[in-house]
Design brief:
single chain; alpha+beta; two-stranded antiparallel ribbon; elongated
């Protein structure tokens, strides 16, 4: 019973993009590890950019400087 947690910053991923992530993660586990898609759980957690840091600064600050 695989459990996959995908964490992304909350910056406008669409419902369609999230559905595609879930579909592909499920498919990858089925293909590579022969896991049953019916018992594969995929969770997408969206994190506010103020709560995600890279190289000592928040993603919010990075985005303000134009860094993607």
């Amino acid at each position: 019973m695989p459990y996959v947690l995908i964490q992304i910053t909350r910056e406008g991923a669409t419902a369609e993009q999230k559905a595609e992530l879930i579909r592909r993660a499920t498919g990858m586990l089925a293909e590579v590890l022969n896991k049953n898609p019916a018992t594969t759980f995929v969770v997408i957690e969206e994190i506010e950019t103020d709560n995600w840091g890279v190289a000592g600064e928040t993603v919010t600050a990075m985005r303000a400087r134009g860094v993607r």
